[in-house]
Design a protein that fits this description.
Blueprint lengths: L13 E7 L11 H15 L5 E4 L3 H13 L7 E4 L9 H4 L2 E5 L3 E8 L2 H4 L9 H6 L7 E9 L6 E2 L4 E5 H7 L5 H12 L3 E5 L17 E4 L3 E5 L9 H13 L9 E5 L6 E2 L2 E2 L8 E3 L2 E6 L4 H12 L4 E6 L15 E4 L8
Parallel strand pairs: 1-2, 2-3, 5-6, 8-9, 11-12, 16-17
Antiparallel strand pairs: 1-18, 4-5, 7-8, 10-11, 13-14, 15-16
GO molecular function, one term: protein-arginine deiminase activity
InterPro entries: Peptidyl-Arg-deiminase_porph
Pfam family, one: PAD_porph
């Protein structure tokens, strides 16, 4: 590590969670009401523990979102709106800032290129989001580093101590000309990591991110990894997720020890017009004092909550209904971005 900045783990103290409210000009238009219900549930759950910062496209959307949240008895003292922000869609895990923490405190907001997951979707406004937010008095004691390299926040996991976890399938898809060694070196430089652990297996039907790590395997405190497992040999995912589990078992901590592994249960297939949706319990969000868990109305929801309680014994596990989100191929972690403690500017 070349200077005092570091990439904090998600379980470290936070200022807030950053989201963008869905509206009729995003891809949610066809099922906007159901998705809004999920956003209300998310904000209601998160504000029990910490503030939520909500980007809105215009004043009318803010008025509407406020009304929805007030009717749900959300603590509005923990809600801050950022008005007149342009965005193509609401997947802020991938278009929002990746924040490094420094001394002082001082923060470095990394602004990687966002290409709509390799050009699959329009993303020109989303690619400008970090720069736009940096001019709206949302953050303080920070600077932005723009990096001409396609990388989404959902593609990387850190343990906060210099180890990065990712999938080679995703990064190779974004940068087919680059070697694994070259990508590892660049990620270590930009994200201030000592090493990158790569997974070569793992995927979910209905996922268009090319195997983002946050749908598959996540770090937890004390050298643990929580991962999406599949226990149904008849399921199309079985062989691939079993191979991923074997890869995880072969990984070693910095001290050369195996990671403590926590397999998450496999929900029953959720179909939409014959299309299978990517229902992953690994797409949880860690906040101060809690883990917000995607719930799908499946019997496995309760089992997943019990697994997360083992991996995060000092946090409350709070289910958030996310069946509406997987219609657009993402889930709870995908629509959020945590802001480390001290980054959020005080209200003037």
């Amino acid at each position: 590590m070349t200077d005092a900045f570091r990439f904090p783990a998600e379980w470290e103290p936070q200022s807030a969670v950053l989201i963008a409210w869905p509206h009729a000009d995003t891809d949610w238009a066809e099922r906007l009401g159901a998705v809004e219900d999920t956003y209300v549930a998310l904000v209601a759950a998160a504000t029990r523990f910490q503030p939520v910062v909500i980007c809105v496209a215009d004043d009318d959307l803010q008025i509407y979102a406020e009304a929805r949240l007030r009717s749900a008895r959300v603590d509005m003292g923990r809600v801050r709106f950022v008005p007149s922000v342009e965005y193509d869609d609401t997947w802020l895990r991938d278009s929002g800032p990746i924040t490094l923490c420094g001394d002082g405190p001082r923060f470095k907001l990394l602004d990687f290129r966002f290409t709509g997951w390799g050009g699959k979707f329009e993303a020109s406004r989303d690619d400008l989001l970090v720069g736009e937010l940096s001019g709206l008095n949302v953050f303080h004691n920070y600077f932005v580093q723009s990096i001409d390299f396609a990388l989404e926040g959902g593609a990387i996991e850190t343990d906060g101590a210099g180890t990065l976890l990712s999938t080679w399938r995703c990064l190779h898809e974004r940068h087919p000309e680059a070697s694994r060694e070259s990508v590892s070196a660049r990620l270590c430089e930009w994200l201030h990591q000592d090493r990158v652990l790569w997974l070569d297996h793992g995927y979910l039907e209905g996922d268009d991110t090319d195997a983002h790590i946050d749908t598959l395997a996540r770090f937890a405190p004390d050298d643990a990894i929580v991962f999406q497992a599949c226990d149904d040999p008849a399921d199309a995912h079985y062989a691939e997720l079993a191979a991923m589990a074997a890869e995880l078992a072969a990984l070693r901590t910095r001290e050369g020890k195996p990671y403590r592994l926590f397999p998450l249960p496999w929900p029953r297939p959720i179909l939409d017009g014959g299309r299978r949706l990517a229902a992953s319990y690994a797409n949880f969000l860690i906040i101060d004092g809690a883990v917000l868990m995607p719930a799908y109305g499946d019997a496995a929801d309760e089992v997943a909550a019990a697994v997360l309680a083992q991996a995060f014994p000092r946090r409350e596990i709070v289910p958030v209904p996310c069946r509406s989100l997987i219609w657009q191929n993402g889930s709870l972690h995908c629509i959020t971005m945590q802001l480390p403690a001290g980054l959020l500017a005080p209200v003037e």
